Amino acid sequence: MSEKAVKKKRRVKVPRYVATVYCNGGKNAKKKYEYEEEVLNCQQALEIDPEGNLECSYGCLGFESCIQACKFDAIHKNENGVPEVDEEKCIHCKLCIKACPRDLIKTRMADQTMMPLCSNQDKGALARKECDVSCIACRMCEKNCPADAIHVIDNYAVIDDDTCLVCGKCVTVCPRKLIKDENGIIYA
Fold first, then answer.
1. How far is it, in rounded angstroms, from Cα 70 to Cα 67?
2. How many CB atoms sit inside 10 A of residue 185's CB?
3. Is the pLDDT of residue 80 over 80?
4. CA distances from 108 to 5, 115, 173 (A)
5. What is the largest CA-CA distance in the chain?
6. Residue 81 near residue 131, CB atoms below 8 Å
7. d(C-alpha 82, C-alpha 21), whole Å
8. Less Cβ crowding at N or C end of the chain, within 10 Å?
9. Model confidence over 102-111: pLDDT tens digits?
10. Going by C-beta distance under 8 Å and a sequence separation of 6 or more, which residues neighbour residue 117?
11. SS3 label, residue 54
12. How far apart are CA 180 and CA 187, in angstroms?
């Protein structure tokens, strides 16, 4: 065996990790009020009001602390006004994770493309009132998952990356359309 073949054989595929914002509320989240003064970032918003100005006390505040923290231009607001990570640019430095005062940004394996983009822990009826795309803990995803990889924990869906088959069944059965397929292959 040639030296080149030996080196190639020794390579081990290392999982690639990326940051993901587990909220898709933005324009879909109901607001209690608008701030009267200029707010420069999410931390400042919570200093003004520790509960924030959203009905959903778990939702993205939208003042771009994570975007400001990213040194790689890997986070931009999507059409709903929620920060979204560009996986091609993300190097998983975790600066955005540290910058989010509501801990909405978490690590996931890049090849795990099914994402329940909600962190609301309120019970279904209240979550429904707070945001048009919140998880209502109906457990449809959990009941229909062939791999038992998704479970409702603290009233919102959580996927076990190691167990998920990336089949997309959860995407198709979610009545609130909050579970997304990052690849855009599966449409609910």
1. 5
2. 10
3. yes
4. 32, 9, 22
5. 71
6. no
7. 8
8. N
9. 999 999 999 9
10. 20, 21, 22, 23, 24, 133, 178, 179, 180
11. strand
12. 8
C-alpha dihedral sign at 36, 44, 67, 108? negative
What are 118-165's pLDDT values in tens digits? 999 999 999 999 999 999 999 999 999 999 999 999 999 999 999 999
Contact 171, 186 (CB under 8 A): yes
- Which amino acid, one-letter code, is at 179? I
Q: To which H or E segment does residue 159 belong?
A: strand 156-159
Q: Count CB neighbours of 175 within 10 A.
A: 10
Alpha-carbon distance of 150 to 13, in angstroms, equals: 25
